[in-house]
Amino acid sequence: MNATAGSMARSRAIVALILGYFVVLVYATIASDPLAAIVAELGFGVIAIAVGAMLYGQTANPRSVLAAAAGCLGAGGVLTFAAVLTRVAAIDLLSSFFVFLGVGCYVYAVWRSN
Question: 112: which residues sit within 8 A by CB, 6+ positions away?
Fold first, then answer.
């Protein structure tokens, strides 16, 4: 991974999104606010897509495990939006599966590179 100014700004933005997500999630849980819960779910989708896009920008080979991680995270984020809009449990489960698969692929790619 290279530490250019653009990638540092993107990394900070993603960290800010993640922190914001957890703040909204904690509030939604404590206050039992359904609107805040929806905002947290949408934030989760945005984070998954943003991390997937960042990973895809860092891969040199489109057939690598890192590219698979990026694709899975992007798909999981898009499916999160679909789950929020439709409230279909199967879509929600599928979005979680893709996000977990993307995180697993990323962990494997990092483990394999060391």
Answer: 65
